[in-house]
Amino acid sequence: MPIDPLVTATAILPLVGGPANVASVAHCMTRLRLRLADPSRVDVEALRALPGVLGVVVADGTYQVVLGPGAVTKVTAAFEGLVGGPTTAGELAARGAALRAERRRRNATPVKTALRRVAAVFVPLIPALIGCGILAGVNGLLVNAGLLPWLTPALAAVASGFMALIAVFVGHNTAKEFGGTPVLGGAVAAIVVYPGVAKVTAFGVTLAPGQGGVLGALAAALLATYVEKACRGRIPDTLDVLLTPTLTVLVAGLATLYGLMYAAGAVSTAIGTAANWLLVTTGAFAGLVLGGLFLPLVMLGLHQALIPIHTTLIEQQGYTVLLPILAMAGAGQVGASLAVYVRLRHDTSMRTTIRSALPAGLLGVGEPLIYGVSLPLGRPFLTACVGGAAGGAFVGFFAMLGDEVGTTAIGPSGWALFPLLAGNQGWGTLLAVYAGGLLTGYAVGFAVTYVLGVPGRAAPSAAPGDSSGGPAPSRSR
Fold it and tell me: Is the pTM of this model over 0.85?
């Protein structure tokens, strides 16, 4: 039964210490993320027991309430309404200062900070990538089947419009994340996709519209932000409104045309070439490594580095060949959890957790199974990685044979990835290879866990730290 967002938000609020204890509210694809003034006031066990709550994770100083896709957006909106009502501007300012101080103390690692900021640029784009990706897949099926020829041009336009201008959105989000004016970041990034750049020649080479892609847009907007900040500190207030945006667009725009687009274009081409070479040459081994290591990467937050790579591949080729392999980690997790369910016949609590979390796991939402089952037990997490490695090797092996399986968007995983499949083969082949990888991950994850991964009794529930920010990889992205 669908949860009532307001009822759920109202139930969560007192369990995290009430409005006065909430320093900030945010959400990702599946989790309500809360930073709290006094974490000791949280009743974690009561939170886990609430209807609609799939799990609770404590990571990077935040309390993350796992609610699942769709539900999290509605509950977050209701929660913000409850928190915003009785909170004064002074309280919010004080909480913001405390939050910034805590962030600086807890997250001083440069790599984690950089990855988190990159994720903040790309994660907001995932809903549009998903929607447009599904429409692109539907349109491809209609075209191949020769159906509805009067509709397919319109569907192609609807599905492709966002990708044609994704550089603008990347530029807008980059400037926003790094403290610049978002519209100036978008304006400079728009140069990357402007058709008129085909008339610009530098170093004896003529530019092509879109050269450098999202990486060029990211670099252009980042440069624009630094130029804007430099101008703000030097230009008199009376001239700031005229000169700062002009100089920002001029300096960053020329640097984009005569440097960044060439450099980012070379990097983007290298990413596409490397991904294709990796799968064609070492597909089974690459799939084994990527599928086996993805869950640990998620735990460390390092999977965020893959988001711009996925986006670059989608922009270049129309699909990312990495996400279906990474999605096999979730299949290994499902198989491992099923083995725990079978082996621990007398652990009613653990079996109840698995029954409630398994549907979400099949659809690619892995947090409930990870934090409710495999990590608290220990060994099943490792055997789940083995299952993911086997599924990844299966998909990678077919890539070596020339059957590329990719997805037109990032974020979803598991069964939810089927509508987004794309590649260099027909729909039947794509379905068969991806489904075969999932079944392999399920089977190997189950078998290895059943034999080696189940301890004698269930460990008490825990909420280990998690650095995941996202698409997904879903997903693995």
Answer: no
